[in-house]
Every structure is written in structure tokens, then in C-alpha cells.
Design goal:
single chain, alpha+beta
Length: 75
């Protein structure tokens, strides 16, 4: 039986890296960002500071745990 966990881990790492890039680039309100949040099962807080129509700052507070990590913490 093949272990596919490393492939899933790589995909999750790439997805999370893209999420962090979008946060840094202030791309929080796009449909692509919503898709990333769903695929990561993100349950944290996103923040955007806007002044005069321009995004000054964006960030997130992690509440992110994948199902695999939750399983590992329980066992």
C-alpha cells in the first residue's frame, strides 16, 4: 500500500504559501482567495485596513488546522 501523505502535504504547503502571498499582496477579497480559504479549511481572522480607498495593511490570525494535523494531535 502506497503512502500518499507526502503528496497531500506538499499540496497543502503550496496552497498555504499561496494564501500567505495573497495576504501579503492584499488580495483578500477575490474569489480565488475564497477558494483558497475553503480548500485550507481556514478558520482564523483576516483583517484589512483601508484608508481613502487604498489598502494600507492586511494580515491574518491563525486558527488554521488541517484535518490531518487535528488527527495527529488527538492520537
Amino acid at each position: 500500500m502506497k503512502n500518499t501523505e507526502p503528496n497531500n502535504t506538499n499540496i497543502e504547503e503550496k496552497t498555504f504559501a499561496e494564501f500567505r502571498r495573497k495576504v501579503r499582496e492584499s488580495e483578500l477579497l477575490s474569489a480565488a482567495m475564497q477558494n483558497l480559504l475553503r480548500s485550507l479549511r481556514f478558520s482564523g481572522r483576516l483583517s484589512v485596513v483601508v484608508k481613502n480607498g487604498s489598502i494600507l495593511k492586511s494580515g491574518y490570525e491563525e486558527g488554521y488546522f488541517s484535518r490531518q494535523l487535528e488527527g495527529r494531535m488527538i492520537h
